[in-house]
Amino acid sequence: MKKRSKLPQGWDEERVKRVIEHYEGSSQRAGRRGHSRRGKKDQTLMEVPRALVPAVRDLIAKRRKAS
């Protein structure tokens, strides 16, 4: 028998199934558009190679200081 994972507070199996169905039914392009709509309109999520993360953090820090 598989060990069951704990779900985050407020989640149940039905919610997990709905999320899975949503993302399995989405194309990659639609998924990317969804990321850009969450949160603030001037922000987005993207994958960055791990080796570039320090450089990206530095750019973000410089931009914040300039603001």
Span between termini: 55 Å
Radius of gyration, CA atoms, in whole angstroms: 17 Å
Hey, roughly how much beta strand do the residues contain? under 5%
- SS-based structural class? mainly alpha
Which residues sit in consecutive blocks of at least 5 with pLDDT less than 50?
A: none
- Approximately how much helix is present in the residues? 40-55%
Largest sheet: none
Averaged pLDDT, please?
79
Order of SSEs, N→C? HHH
> What spatial form do the alpha-carbon principal axes imply?
elongated
Supply the number of helical segments. Answer: 3
Q: How many strands?
A: 0
Please characterize this protein's 3D structure.
This protein has 67 residues and is mainly α. It has a domain at 12-41. Helix content is 54%, strand content 0%. The protein contains three helices and no strands. The chain has helices spanning 13-24, 28-37, 53-66. The longest helix is centred in the C-terminal third of the chain and has 14 residues, at 53-66. The chain is elongated and about 50 Å long.
Please outline the helices and strands.
Elements: H1 13-24, H2 28-37, H3 53-66
Entry summary:
With 67 residues, the chain is mainly alpha-helical. The chain has helices at 13-24, 28-37, 53-66. It has a domain at 12-41.
